[in-house]
Specification:
alpha/beta, Rossmann fold, 4-stranded parallel sheet, 18 strands, globular
Length: 345
């Protein structure tokens, strides 16, 4: 039930939802929050308390950085006990990365952190932003019979679907329904009613303290394989100074070419202590390196399985682990354990 005593903090980072068209160039540019409110007076009709925090200046989410993630965590930590839930307005372009990062940065989360945005600005007649924002706010204010939040996790809400944040990926640059969580059932689907899947939603331990992690290690890279990839391209990636981890996007169930030069570059990187995690370029399904000779080869080299991690979540998890663990064996071990529902093992 939506709790009329709920206090929700709306954090506006930017994104299309609040953008306006530059009359000269025709491009959409971030605009201030008053614009969002003045185009959406209906928001005041919600019967619970909403306060807002504005990033100044608001950004296109393509400009997202580790520093901005740190700022989001800081806003949530400072306000954690004052509010029942948080809604983050965010551009859709990097929303899956931010949602993944926040799921690791906000450890033992006990309150909803719902990210939403829109494909059309809120000032446009056909905007998808109004429904997304109203529903995200209502989900953040929704409580169960014990007065606990219905969704105490980092989630993404877009177009009738509530998804675990670290399972999402942006699939569509055009449709309103831009996100999916291919390997995780939806946390809720909204129509006339909100239909939560309570078996899927994480049940936090309310006796544990929430931990706010501010730092991530940026010494990681994504390497996507493709037919024709050159020795120089792989070598350049694996020899980035200070590199600690690689998200290797492989084919199908975790296969790579058997070329000797590739094997020896990967072997060399692993022998230098670089952690290589295998994620599939396929959206659905999981890495199963034992299935083919080409996958088995990677496994023998010491490439670790990312199972059904998204690229976004694999990257964020590595950034999070490398900041905390100096022992590579520990990073390898924890990479293969679920921490906050990011992987199906
Ligand atoms: N470029 C925009 C952004 O990510 C797109 C959007 O908001 O959907 O900020």
């Amino acid at each position: 039930m939506i709790d009329i005593n709920s206090n929700i903090l709306l954090i506006y980072t930017g994104g299309t939802i609040g953008m306006v068209e530059n009359k000269k160039t025709g491009a959409l540019e971030p605009f201030n929050f008053d614009h969002l409110y003045s185009n959406f007076p209906e928001i005041k009709r919600l019967n619970f308390n909403i306060e807002s925090y504005l990033f100044d200046p608001p950004i296109d989410s393509s400009d997202m950085t580790l520093d901005t993630w740190r700022q989001i965590v800081e806003v949530i930590e400072i306000n954690y006990y004052k509010y029942d839930g948080f809604v983050i307005l965010h551009g859709t372009d990097t929303m899956a990365y931010t949602a993944s990062a926040l799921s690791f940065m906000l450890e033992n989360l006990t309150k909803p952190v719902i990210l939403t945005g829109s494909q059309l600005p809120i000032g446009k007649l056909r905007t998808d932003g109004k429904e997304n924002l109203i529903t995200a706010l209502e989900i953040a204010a929704d409580k169960d019979q014990n007065n606990n939040p219905k969704v105490p996790e980092v989630a993404v809400y877009m177009q009738n679907l509530l998804m675990r944040g670290n399972r999402t990926t942006k699939l569509n640059a055009d449709n309103f329904s831009a996100f999916r969580s291919p390997n995780c059932p939806y946390l809720a689907e909204t129509g006339i009613e909100f239909r939560y899947d309570s078996h899927i939603i994480i049940k936090p331990d309310y006796s544990k303290e929430t931990v706010f992690n501010y730092y991530l290690d940026a010494n990681v890279v994504i390497l996507k394989l493709f037919p024709g990839i050159s020795f120089e391209a792989v070598k350049a990636h694996l020899n980035i100074p200070g590199l600690k981890g690689v998200v290797l996007e492989t084919f199908g169930s975790g296969n790579s070419p058997l070329f000797p030069w590739l094997t020896s570059l990967l072997q060399d990187a692993i022998s230098r202590g670089i952690v290589i995690v295998n994620v599939s370029q396929c959206l659905f399904g999981s890495v199963e390196m034992h299935r083919y000779q080409n996958g088995q080869k990677l496994e023998k080299l010491g490439v670790i399985s990312g199972h059904d991690l998204t690229t976004e979540a694999a990257l964020a998890k590595m950034m999070y682990l490398f900041d905390r663990k100096s022992d590579t064996a520990e990073v390898i071990r924890i990479m293969q354990l679920p921490l906050c529902g990011e992987v199906s093992i």
